[in-house]
Structures
1.
Amino acid sequence: MFGSLKKKLKESVQKLSKKTEEEIVIEESRKEEHKKISETKKEPKKLKPKPKPKKIESKPVEKPVYEVIEKVQEPEEVKEEPKKLSFRQKFTTKEFSENDVDKFFEELEVDMLQANVALEVVEALKEGLKKNLVGKQIKRGKTEEIISDAFEKSLFEILDQGSFDLESKIKGHLKVIFLGFNGSGKTTTIAKVANYLQKKGHKPVFAAGDTFRAASIEQLEHHGDKLGIKVIKHKYGSDSAAVFFDAVKYAESNGCDVILGDTAGRTHANKNLMAELEKIVRVNKPDLKILVIDSLTGNDAIGQAQEYDKLVGIDAVVMTKTDVNQKGGSILSVCYAIKKPILFLGVGQGYDDIKRFDPKEFAKELLK
């Protein structure tokens, strides 16, 4: 999962770490050489001059005169100061500057754009890294650890759009509708979420609100039969809002605590279909509106997310097909674009192939 993006990020962090280590070593060598030169220029310490002997005046005495010789005191021995440790024997540190971060992103920016990370997200990551790294004193031997931690924190700040616990929202009858483009994987995602909730002790019901696409109702019924879940349906071409209304009535009468509604896949540029979606939301007042996005879509995912959010107000996102996505940048881009939490990641075709999204774990995983 996201092998290409992870490889580029890891390589970039290692490259910056190696460069920083080299700069520290060069600075150590430069300082040590400067110290040696300074020491050779110092003049030798001068010895104190010998004091002149005192002049002795002779006095006339009756006794024999003895020659008085004053002992001249020898100069004290000059003790050498103990040698100080060289700069190589100490840990030298480097303080990161904004210029260091800018240079780091000169190469990384292209790689991130190729991995479907939007330009505004790259800029946000750059500013985040400056905030988390500039001014820090980095010790030799600790560069990769410190740079990785700072970059991980910057990624987390992009991905962390608040916690989202689906189960905590189930009080009475939770009405959930799933929205998205054609082929994004809405119907399969609904089945996976239903299976997830069943294992938690909940009783869901399906609303076959996609009355437009051929075989969409049969596809949802197929999942319903396998999972033992009732599907509320109308004829093709009927009003989707009415299907949801009937599904809510069924849930209230049959002890179902979650209504999971399918909708027709539609492009955000199709005004008629988007108007229909707006009607579904206005009439049924769902508790949650979950946008399903194909993670392979690339930067088009930003436009989808922004338009859907603008029209009906998105509560959370599910990213599908992440198991076959080598790039993964669309996850960062969507989080940043609409500031809404990612609820699940689709990681396969089976009912159990859905994973709760943890922004902290995801940020850490990208740098492994």
2.
Amino acid sequence: MKQFPSLTRSAKSVRVAFLTKWDPLDPHSWSGTMRSMYLALGRRGLSVTALGPVHSGARLALRCGDAVVRALLGKSYDYRHNLWVAREYAFRFGRKLARGAFDAIFAPAASTEVSLLETHLPIVYLSDILFPDYRDYYPQCSNLLHFSAAEVERVEETAMRKASAFICPSDWVAGRAARTYGLPPERIHVLPFGANLQWTPSYEEATRKKDMGVCRLLLLGRNWQRKGGPIAFEALKLLLEAGIDADLTVCGCVPPAGVSHPKLTVIPFLSKRDPAQVDRLANLLRTSTFLVLPTQAEAFGIVFCEASAFGLPSIARNTGGVGGVVKDGVNGYKIAQEAGADAYARAIMDLWRDRDRYHSLCVSSRRLYDSSLNWDAWGRGAQAVLEGVADRLSTGGAMPGIRIQ
């Protein structure tokens, strides 16, 4: 088990078990979100101990089974959320908890890990999307076998029953937690995520007026189709047809064969483990004019926080939890779900032709990052939640169960 090493704490510091199957210090665990949360809690003076990584043999076997089911039946089996894996995690994490002294458990994206866990400790569960919303929303979660869907529902419901508090990054998820699982408002805490960057520019650098010689569009994402690559590419061509000198950089995925253009640059992958590649990503955020993400499905969108840190406005599809991070007229604009490339091109053209309005949007993007879209702000909120559940336990306060409707 790894303990946050850099702070000296008082004897009253809340001792937090950071419970996840991942290694929270790996910059690729949940695209760096685990690491950001782990470090943010440590900076708040909490005594944070990582219980992961924990590798599951059952999960590996079921992943192979999912591939077979897809090939033979055209259906899918969710190997990430099932009772077999949950039992294995309950045993292994139970042993790790028994070897330490803790006041609370923080379980980010860990419904399977905690659903069958037996513990007297209060659990603060975090998720950016709940099963009723991600079923048939993300392609990898669609077309589930009936019994697999029922199993996932049970895992999610059981995790929510165990949670003394629930943290989520958007009102979209908070509404689902209240409607489906009956959580009272005092148990739900909406804390937007931050930017998973090792460093961010100063306010002065981020709000400096940009070079407007070329309208530089940036699309960041691992899946060309799901992240709206075809729409971004068509928007580029519409801007060029309108006489705007524009280009598009796609980073993180590769367009299919036949998608090419002299104004299209493709960077298949940048690793956050490589300082040179991290610098290259930062330079893309620094020199681009717009982040364009017509994403088909998005639970939240850390990338919008990262863009805001660089004073880079976002033009994004209004879907899922995007409304929790992209605020119209503040750090970008949301485009209607049914809109096509012309709507994105119009939004970009309007801002491109009004330079004062565009610069004001860059400034307010950075201000929103400074006020709420950063991990220190998230850490303050999460600290209050964890200290609250630990205090109720230490004083013998009731930890009411969750009513499932």
3.
Amino acid sequence: MEHVGFRQMKDGTAVEYHFLERLEADYVARLPDRILQALRHLESTLSGYRVSRLTHSLQSATRAEDDGADEEMVLAALIHDIGDELAPANHSQLAAAVIRPYVRPEVTWVVAHHGAFQLYYYGHHVGLDRHAREHFRDHPWYDSCLHFCERYDQAAFDPDYPTRSLAYFEPLVRRIFNREPFDPAVTGQ
């Protein structure tokens, strides 16, 4: 079979859905390749900073690793801005949706909220609420996101910082994105 015959999902047969399931398994297995490609693409996106978005992401991950963060948080630092191109108004939530099936809920929460927490550093300069993060003050992962932004994200625009390469982080990307999605032992779901 080259493709299914149905035009509406409700008309599909078991044979067709098993065929699609095999194709989807192959496609899902290549997710780490697509993540790495999306990271490479950050080299030529939003400009104006002293480093590219890719270098910023690599530097964030390098800083997290240097700080002793666990591998899930290092991965979060690496991919936290992966949504910049497609979702500039909510890039944090897009990145969190990408990582959510593979990491513990704390990491997903930090990535999802880092945009609001980052406003602390520049919001007052552009007419936004620099204290937006205070809405989350009582959340159990508030301090984790505060640490993430202060140590890994806002500090990662230094062209002279010794930043590790994407090739260095590739095994980490492959290891985590090859996990079983929504493994209850990891995600608690």
4.
Amino acid sequence: MQAEINTVQPPIVQPRPNLGRLRFMKEVISTLVFGIAVFTLLQLAIPQSMVQGRSMQPTFFDGQRLLISRLNYLFDDPDYGDIIVFNSPSPRTDDEPPLIKRVIGLPGDIIEIIDRQVYRNGQLLAEDGYILETCSISDCSDDLWELDVDEYFVMGDNRNHSNDSRSFGPVARDLIIGEAIFRFWPLNTFGSVHQYHYD
């Protein structure tokens, strides 16, 4: 008799899904979503601003890029010497970019310019640390402003070349975007913004 030979076919093995690849793709997608969320939150909390013009010389120069903190004023208010970014109370155009100036007066203060010098509540301000030059007669004519409960008086450090509260008046609290806290461009100016806080 002829022997029968039974050939047993091996079972068909289904390829296993590549769990390592799936896990890697999930990690990549999660990281991207997290990165986008963090970037969006940072843009909301710490927007960027570019200095335009020479009104804040010698503190800032045209073309410098700054980080602006919205968080600083969520639980506190601007203080003397803060450098703030705000929307103009009287914009010249519909798309006028935000302005950047130094806070000179707080709500309730009386700001005066007498003989080209700035007085707050009758006291002469010591401003030698940040202004570029002595204000000219034409740019600092004698005047007086009484600030309301939500108003701030702001001036550029380059007094002879600044559009500020001398021309458009006090700035309302709700127009203030945030405080300039850091320079990041150009790299040779990289660093935190020095604040002159005084009483």
